[in-house]
Amino acid sequence: MNVSTGQTLTCPQKQYQINDRCCPMCPAGGRVYADCTESRSTDCKPCPEGTFMDHPTSRPVCYNCKSCDEGSGLKMKTSCTIVSDTVCEPLEGFYCSDSRKDDCVEARKHRRCKPGEYIREHGTSSTDTVCSICSDGTFSNGTFPSCQKHTQCESKGRELLRPGTETEDAQCGGLLLHRTVLINFVVVVMSLFSVLLVCYLNHGQSQNRNENVRHKYILEII
């Protein structure tokens, strides 16, 4: 220990001043139980359970270990020891918004992309989710890693019931093939009916001519 001789006392590193003397600090993991005297050095005691001291100290009381509050989006990464405090990290779905060295002090929940946006970058333990807006002709419900193109109903042979938006896909109806087949069937039937009608009329006119010829022949004979 160092004792003052009337001049201003300056204690060396890892010592602290008590009245007119310099006492050795207690090492990390301990606390001062009794200051040094002329006949003995500083009396140190280990930090009790639930407390710590991470550097040489002159304090008579160790620091309380902190807890990682799940309600704040934190969980324990490393438990507290007598020489180090508890180390926290973000819960799943959260990212660290304030950190000190390896310890997370504050966490925030990852952003959720809105309908019409896609997840450009997934959130991590240290970064938030990055969202981007869908371009024209595409859609997303907010959970897609990329925007999806609207279904082209006509190209699939289906009727378009509702155009797509930035949040929903296009809604298609029944197959257009059925309607086309029905129309073609009606056209064929009408064509056949027309042909049969023309044939019937031509046949009737032919019979009338034959009758007229026969009557004329009989009259000539008479």
From TrEMBL:
<feature type="disulfide bond">
    <location>
        <begin position="23"/>
        <end position="36"/>
    </location>
</feature>
<feature type="transmembrane region" description="Helical">
    <location>
        <begin position="181"/>
        <end position="201"/>
    </location>
</feature>
<feature type="repeat" description="TNFR-Cys">
    <location>
        <begin position="10"/>
        <end position="44"/>
    </location>
</feature>
<keyword id="KW-0472">Membrane</keyword>
<feature type="domain" description="TNFR-Cys">
    <location>
        <begin position="46"/>
        <end position="88"/>
    </location>
</feature>
<dbReference type="GO" id="GO:0023035">
    <property type="term" value="P:CD40 signaling pathway"/>
</dbReference>
<feature type="domain" description="TNFR-Cys">
    <location>
        <begin position="10"/>
        <end position="44"/>
    </location>
</feature>
<keyword id="KW-0732">Signal</keyword>
<dbReference type="GO" id="GO:0045935">
    <property type="term" value="P:positive regulation of nucleobase-containing compound metabolic process"/>
</dbReference>
<dbReference type="Pfam" id="PF00020">
    <property type="entry name" value="TNFR_c6"/>
</dbReference>
<keyword id="KW-0675">Receptor</keyword>
<dbReference type="GO" id="GO:0050829">
    <property type="term" value="P:defense response to Gram-negative bacterium"/>
</dbReference>
<protein>
    <recommendedName>
        <fullName>Tumor necrosis factor receptor superfamily member 5</fullName>
    </recommendedName>
</protein>
<keyword id="KW-1015">Disulfide bond</keyword>
<dbReference type="GO" id="GO:2000406">
    <property type="term" value="P:positive regulation of T cell migration"/>
</dbReference>
<dbReference type="GO" id="GO:0046642">
    <property type="term" value="P:negative regulation of alpha-beta T cell proliferation"/>
</dbReference>
<feature type="repeat" description="TNFR-Cys">
    <location>
        <begin position="46"/>
        <end position="88"/>
    </location>
</feature>
<dbReference type="GO" id="GO:0051094">
    <property type="term" value="P:positive regulation of developmental process"/>
</dbReference>
<dbReference type="GO" id="GO:0050830">
    <property type="term" value="P:defense response to Gram-positive bacterium"/>
</dbReference>
<dbReference type="InterPro" id="IPR001368">
    <property type="entry name" value="TNFR/NGFR_Cys_rich_reg"/>
</dbReference>
<feature type="disulfide bond">
    <location>
        <begin position="47"/>
        <end position="62"/>
    </location>
</feature>
<dbReference type="GO" id="GO:0002720">
    <property type="term" value="P:positive regulation of cytokine production involved in immune response"/>
</dbReference>
<dbReference type="GO" id="GO:0006955">
    <property type="term" value="P:immune response"/>
</dbReference>
<keyword id="KW-0677">Repeat</keyword>
<keyword id="KW-0812">Transmembrane</keyword>
<feature type="disulfide bond">
    <location>
        <begin position="26"/>
        <end position="44"/>
    </location>
</feature>
<dbReference type="GO" id="GO:0009897">
    <property type="term" value="C:external side of plasma membrane"/>
</dbReference>
<keyword id="KW-0391">Immunity</keyword>
<keyword id="KW-1133">Transmembrane helix</keyword>
<dbReference type="GO" id="GO:0004888">
    <property type="term" value="F:transmembrane signaling receptor activity"/>
</dbReference>
<keyword id="KW-0325">Glycoprotein</keyword>
<dbReference type="InterPro" id="IPR008063">
    <property type="entry name" value="Fas_rcpt"/>
</dbReference>
<dbReference type="GO" id="GO:0006874">
    <property type="term" value="P:intracellular calcium ion homeostasis"/>
</dbReference>
<dbReference type="GO" id="GO:0006915">
    <property type="term" value="P:apoptotic process"/>
</dbReference>
<comment type="function">
    <text>Receptor for TNFSF5/CD40LG. Transduces TRAF6- and MAP3K8-mediated signals that activate ERK in macrophages and B cells, leading to induction of immunoglobulin secretion.</text>
</comment>
